[in-house]
Predict the structure of ATP-dependent DNA helicase RecG.
Amino acid sequence: MNPNVLQTPIDYLKGVGPNRADLLRGELGIHTYQDLINLFPNRYIDRTRYYKIRELQENSSEVQVIGKIVHLKTVEQKRGKRLVATFVDDTGEMELVWFRGQKWIRESIRINTPYVIFGRCNRIGHLFSMPHPEMELLTEHESSLRTAMQPVYPSTEKLANKGITNRVINKLMQQLFTETGGRFMETLSSSLLEELNLISKPAAMFNIHFPKNQELLAKAQYRLKFEELFYIQLQLLIKNLVRKQKIKGYVFDMVGDHFHDFYDKHLPFSLTGAQKRVIKEIRHDLGTGAQMNRLLQGDVGSGKTIVALMAMLLALDNGFQACIMAPTEILASQHFNGIQELVKPLGINIKLLTGSTKTSARTEIHEQLRSGELHILVGTHALLEDKVKFHNLGLAVIDEQHRFGVAQRAKLWHKNTIPPHILVMTATPIPRTLAMSLYGDLDISVIDELPPGRKPVKTVHRYDSNRLKVFRFLRDEIAKGRQVYVVYPLIQESEKMDYKDLMDGYASIEREFPKPGYQISIVHGQMKPADKDYEMDRFVRGETQIMVATTVIEVGVNVPNASVMIIESAERFGLSQLHQLRGRVGRGAEQSYCILMTGHKLSDDSKTRLETMTRTNDGFEIAEVDLKLRGPGDIMGTQQSGVLHLKIADIVKDNQILKAARYYAQQLLKQDPSLAAEEHKIIRYTYAQLSKHKNIWNYIS
Ligand code: ADP
Ligand code: MG
């Protein structure tokens, strides 16, 4: 078939008039023949069985019945009109009911003519009733391309109201196959088809729309899912290759004094295997002459900071400046203090720049940055201001990635003609499958090992009614010299109420833990930064034993002596947030605890979250559960909800296929990076087509 046939506007398909064409475009984004054949069914229904009216049962699934309409009437109701048909077969009588599209139904229905109706039944009194049945004349039903597995296509209320039922879509699909002969071009190379035992494109297309049986349907689904994921992976990998070829990066080929000095003499502990591996990966990137764009994933406390520092030292050794950017002032100061302490013996000029840096200090920083006197700049997004100009920024480290988002990442880039190397660190593990789909064009390093000697945090779930026991436990821990966090939810929409919860909680803790025996800090979002810092500081220095806070302490705060994390209204937190909060404890040598406080009424999802938290400390496992509970769109935010627009694959359910697709795309590019070989012609052609017709593949940004 001439591939251009598939670009024919949908208006030209027999059975699609201008009205239907508008609806298909507006509701389903179907502009061309190609769009229509790529409208894949959501599910399939077994339509081999015909029911008699006598056999109908309450709460059964969808059924099909053969019979006739003997009577049609409009019933007036307070809430509006409905159209009711009396439908009979040789065993009894039932009702068909329409609330919408009544005019169209009334005009098109034939009385006393055999129909096959299909839908779900309700029982009202002794009578069965089927709202908005799918209907087809028996004669047409018998002559149509009938399949045992009836596809159910995505639809919208508007389409249903305008009479574009599933049946109509099905017929249009038949028409399309008739007009084109169903001879769709193959889109995968014969070696892939052979190696993976995939069915051909035409066979897959036919069986996805008109499956003959379960087995063929499964084969068709596998083939099409693989194809979809394969081309996405190919695109991501090619983007990455192109970036590496096109985007030059500074070459850090010297491993010099700073790095060696620090590594040999001043490292406060020995690195874990995972840290060493990741440093190696980064060193390799920095030596290739291409810009590094690496995502470093590592659970809270896995020791990402030291890795970032060693990378920055490499930059310095090669005569470049480096910066590290954190999402909050608290975190930025912690990084600053920590790093400054570590590099003290090296004689490095390092400064902190945040929103609250005084003007005089700010001016000095700006000058030293421009002259190159300043080696490492630590800060918040104040680093992104236009006034901040580096002499030669070689490496930018971004901590806690998804609080910034991609736009800001891009902004850092444009500060130089040759972009700095970029290392993005995130403590919220992104499930591998998701990372592969979203960040396939980034390189990913994982620290999957905690520093030795850490005792896993013990996590328990306690009901509010057990609060007194929990307080007793706190007293014991504080008596041993430990410190405690008590965290309250603070969620935007209900901020006032949450604030009240926090203040009530604070009051009750003050009653239970009175001065002077106990000192309490409080930190929340409505405080001035200076007050926050003051309260934080008192806790860090051990002057207060209890820190009452909202989730502002979620990210990064490091107080090794704190051994208990109490999370109030834990059912209101998401899994990744709970895990982040728990990561605030268990940083010292002592056994630490996380206590999840809730009321008795819990949703199923809340129960799953609590159960997951008490079962495991593994951030990746938690991320997988989170992905299953919330779906990819919610996890990554609307910004990246593109992953939801897959035509047939599901990155959660089909992650095995995704892995295969990525593997084969990698192999292909290793063998033939420009897809020049004759045997890859099909792939090269398909890839070019897909890139051209963006409407189909618009989920690739
Ligand atoms: P995160 O990955 O959460 O940013 P940090 O870099 O803050 O973790 O490290 C957490 C703590 O673990 C810090 O106190 C750090 O000094 C310590 N640490 C990091 N790596 C090691 C190691 N290899 N051995 C012992 N302690 C380490
Ligand atoms: Mg950190």
